């Protein structure tokens, strides 16, 4: 439309009519004379508005969903972190309880044998040198640890110290093939030498080939001169098999050690030997035998065939 005097006059007229209709609609309230026209317009333009709204809403919803998804992801990540921390805390509590239990058993053994010990924790299995059965503990020369000291735990003999550093030490386990310790049979004076065999039972050579030994008998350390490398009375293990002597000067035994060498955590290094040999006092109490149930069968004699009447005939 060209910008002429007539077009300007028409625009002013339309604006005036619009203001007049608005004024009449406001004053009419619910009975407005233009209400019918409004409803007609709504019926025409309503579907168009809904279509536009339907087209726009998914975009808005998607934006909202993405925003809320980010919030949910952050919350999920937070919950996962809290869950992991809780599991770690619970695991730490379980481990702490296990160590307290081990320490309690260790102190019990030290008290019975009157051993002066320095507690330590296993921080590594195996050593840099060779394929020896060794462990590394977190105590060394700064803690009074010296070479050739006895190492034990709450179950019995663990090994001996072989290498000492300022803050750590290496312990050769009793299961190592190069390990040998003098032993004494419980409640007797039968002496022998126990050697490690890796993950197999210890091999013990008794000096007396005619010694009467049976499965289930127990051994302790005999002790060394000046108590190095071994103090006396430390539990070693239980006899699991006895080879026939065959007239030999020595007798071979196989002994299951008290210590589980694959589960070592808290140990004690004997820094002060007992004043006297504790003999068998450090050995754990023997388990009480489980009674074997006996079944008594009572046989009741049966009546003769045919009954009493047939017997009288």
TrEMBL record:
InterPro entries named among the record's database cross-references: Cell/Rod_1, Cell/Rod_MreC_2, MreC, MreC_beta-barrel_core
Rod shape-determining protein MreC beta-barrel core domain sequence ranges: 130-270
Keywords: Cell shape
Biased composition (Low complexity): 293-305
Pfam families tied to this protein: MreC
Aminoacyl-tRNA synthetase keyword on record: no
Highest taxon of the lineage: Bacteria
Keyword Membrane: no
Renumbered residue ranges of the record's region Disordered: 275-313
Described purpose of this protein according to its UniProt entry: Involved in formation and maintenance of cell shape.
Annotated family: Belongs to the MreC family.
Listed NCBIfam families: PRK13922.11-5 (NF010510)
Name the UniProt record assigns to this protein: Cell shape-determining protein MreC
Species name: Streptomyces griseoincarnatus
Name of the gene this protein is made from: mreC
